[in-house]
Write a structure and sequence with these properties.
Alpha-Beta Plaits, 3 helices, alpha+beta
Length: 99
């Protein structure tokens, strides 16, 4: 299983509305992208300076599934919107060891 985690820091302008919109858009991908097995979207509540505003944790059966997700037209639409409303993002991709 592949786990794909992304953290986002949003621009201050319309921050709350953009976080909500991106959350909805991301959650909609679960119905649109066949290789996407699960998605958890979290909105940050911490006021620490190093905190990011929104996180997603997604899972895929394999690396090919993640690659197909990356280029899926519905995902690409979400990415294009996100690029306009965030200042920073971080990503982690790893193979989950299942016992």
């Amino acid at each position: 299983m592949i786990v794909h985690i992304v953290l986002f820091r949003f621009k201050e302008e319309n921050k709350e509305a953009n976080i909500e919109k991106v959350s909805e858009m991301l959650n909609g991908l679960l119905e649109s992208v066949p290789t996407l097995k699960s998605m958890e979207v979290g909105i940050n509540y911490s006021d620490k300076e190093r905190a990011m505003d929104l996180s997603i944790i997604t899972t895929f059966d394999n690396k090919v599934g993640l690659e197909q997700y990356a280029i899926h037209p519905e995902h690409v639409k979400v990415v294009e919107y996100i690029k306009g409303v965030v200042t920073e993002s971080k990503v982690v991709d790893y193979v989950k060891i299942v016992n």
